[in-house]
């Protein structure tokens, strides 16, 4: 009977230890992204649908890039929308473990995606002294989004310890 109680206690402790593990992010410390992220069992997963930028001028023409701003401005707007969506689930940008960034070629850049502009806004949310966590990420150039003036769409997955 004593062995059975000890075995049960050991199993209970092992289950607790699994929940105590943290998310592990790997890769070069100088890289703006994590090359690998491991989420241990027991974490809640949050999926945030692709978010597009808000209009800078609600009366503007959605076919014009100026209505939404350049890539840097659009990325900032999208990341703020993602931050708000995560808050509704009790999560933060520090909980983001995977990000997919879709960029349309900027007409002002000869149809090439403005990766540098996207990165300027990205770096204000990730890998900072206040929020050092970095997600794994993919960035791709695509031909268009829902509105012709949009240059950025981002979706994320986040993971956090259950409450």
Keywords:
about 160 residues, alpha+beta, 60s Ribosomal Protein L30, Chain: A, four-stranded mixed sheet, 3 helices, 6 strands, about 25% helix
Task: Provide a brief overview of the structure.
This protein is of the alpha+beta class and 163 residues long. Helices cover 27% and strands 24% of the residues.
User: How many strand elements?
Assistant: 6
CATH evolutionary superfamily = RutC-like
**Class computed from helices, strands and strand pairing:** alpha+beta
Number of helices: 3
CATH fold category name: 60s Ribosomal Protein L30, Chain: A
What's the CATH first level?
Alpha Beta
Report how far apart the termini are: 34 Å
Fraction of residues in helices? 25-40%
Strands across the major sheet, in which order?
Answer: 3-6-4-5
- Portion of residues in beta strands equals 15-25%
CATH architecture: 2-Layer Sandwich
Shape: globular
Summarize the main sheet.
4 strands, mixed
Query: Please, how many domains?
Result: 1
- Uncertain segments are 4-19
Alpha-carbon Rg, integer: 20 Å
Give the topology string: H per helix, E per strand: HEEEHEHEE
Report the mean per-residue pLDDT as an integer.
90
């Amino acid at each position: 009977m004593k062995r059975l109680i000890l075995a049960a206690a050991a199993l209970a402790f092992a289950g607790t230890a699994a929940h105590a593990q943290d998310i592990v992010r790997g890769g070069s410390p100088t890289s703006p992204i994590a090359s690998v992220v491991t989420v241990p069992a027991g974490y809640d997963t949050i999926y945030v649908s692709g978010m597009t930028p808000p209009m800078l001028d609600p009366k503007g023409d959605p076919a014009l890039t100026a209505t939404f701003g350049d890539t840097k401005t659009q990325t900032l707007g999208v990341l703020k929308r993602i931050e708000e969506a995560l808050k509704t689930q009790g999560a933060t940008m520090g909980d983001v473990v995977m990000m997919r960034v879709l960029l349309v070629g900027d007409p002002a850049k000869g149809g090439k995606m403005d990766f540098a502009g996207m990165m300027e806004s990205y770096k204000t949310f990730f890998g900072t002294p206040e929020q050092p966590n970095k997600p794994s990420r993919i960035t791709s150039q695509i031909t268009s989004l829902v509105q012709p003036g949009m240059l950025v769409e981002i979706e994320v997955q986040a993971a956090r310890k259950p409450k």
